[in-house]
Amino acid sequence: MRIAIFTEVFLPKIDGVVTRVIRTVDQLAEMGHEVMIFATGDAPDTYAGFPVVRAPSVSLHRIYPEIKVGLPTPAVAKQLKEFNPDIVHAVNPVFFAGYGVLLAKLHKKPLLASFHTDVPAYTEALKIGAVKTPATALIRALHNRAQMNLVTSDPMLETARGYGFRDLAVWPKAVDTVGYHPDNYSAEMRGRLTDGDDAPLLIYVGRMSAEKNLAVLNEVMPLMREKVPGARLAMVGAGPQLEQMKKTFDPAYTVFTGYMSGTPLAQAFASADVFAFPSLTETLGLVALESFASGVPVVGARAGGIPFVIEDGETGRLVDKHATPQQWADAFAGLLIDAPLRDTMALSARQEAERWSWRAATEKLVEYYEECISRAAQ
Fold it and tell me: Which of 49, 224, 229, 322 shows its CA 20 to 30 Å from the CA of 251?
């Protein structure tokens, strides 16, 4: 099968969407399919042996400087036509992937769209709520040009239906259980994350941005340390709010590592006690699965796709999305204090991660591609 993938974000940026795209392309390569990737920003020339077509891009400087908005060009349209795909997959169509949607319809190609980022919810978190209504209308119009729309978790089915998306199905979750493993625990890395203290360690990994609700951790930590004296917080990642957070979080118990990848990132996951995931806007939360694979339970919000990942009381704790900082602090402290419970949850978390392979998820995606092709033919 010849598959054209249009994506709003790609390497060298790393986030949950990019991880899903590259892991999927890895599997498609092993399965013998042909892929052409259409991407924005400073993408590499190739990935997994497949060509990457880069679109000229501009940065959303004031709103979200990490995001590169790809511009529609005749060269992109020409290369899509020459590749002549059996199907076009638009990943999170808004701007550039939205152009992919329009090109698929222009060239009468079957189209599958996948919904990874809750853009309407993000507009409120980023304090640009005035654009929520037109943003919702735009993504609904783009998604509903597809033969099928995929979401990344069961809870997001209702969210997508609420936005008016049609022809919905779930793209199964998946995680790398080889790269992320409890055996990656490193005393040296733990020392780096705790600034040399032998202390209970809470970790967050991901983008440092407003929609991740990270400001609550600044309120939670002093409350939690009343119950768990000496507890530390490691913040791993980069983003538009990183410098501001460095100024407001207390350096007496907070370490900011900046961006990590590869072995250091796997070590950081495995060397913590509990993963903190306060985001209210996740469509899935791949980092929670990576934490599970590393043998670290997660405390997250009962919001978006996170309840699809965390089994409350089994692999971590779910906290009400309207919870107070004290309630968050109590949830974190409970796991940091109770080592036997934490160990039991860590084992359950690892077992849960082992159920979800990238091969199985990609085989299901190919089934969806085939269904889209069949629907288009009809």
Answer: 322
The residues with which 301 forms a beta bridge, in sequence order, are 319
Q: Find the helix or strand (DSSP H, E) in which 37 lies.
A: strand 34-39
Distance CA 25, CA 37 (A): 9
pLDDT at site 132: 86
User: Closest Cα to residue 127, out of 263, 241, 46, 282?
Assistant: 241
What's the whole-model pTM score? Answer: 0.87
Tell me which residue of 150, 137, 120, 123 sits closest to 5, measured CA to CA: 150
Q: Which residue type occupies 77?
A: A
HSE-up (13 A, CA, CB side) for residue 309 = 31
User: What contacts 197, CB < 8 A, 6 or more positions away?
Assistant: 230, 232
Are the CB atoms for 28 and 35 separated by under 8 Å?
Answer: yes
Which residue's entry shows tokens 């990132």? 265
pLDDT at 365: 98
Kindly give the parts of the chain with pLDDT less than 50. Answer: none
Closest CA to 4 of 94, 116, 113: 113
Q: What rounded mean pLDDT belongs to the chain?
A: 95
pLDDT at position 70 is 86
Query: Do 338 and 330 form a contact (C-beta atoms < 8 A)?
Result: no
HSE toward the beta carbon, residue 288, CA cutoff 13 A: 25
Residues near 87 by Cβ (< 8 Å), separated by ≥ 6? 1, 2, 3, 4, 109, 110, 111, 112, 369, 372, 373
Please list the alpha-helical segments (H only) found in the chain: 16-30, 74-83, 96-106, 119-125, 132-143, 155-162, 187-193, 215-227, 242-248, 262-270, 286-293, 325-337, 339-353, 358-377
Residues 6 or more apart in contact with residue 179 via CB below 8 angstroms: 266
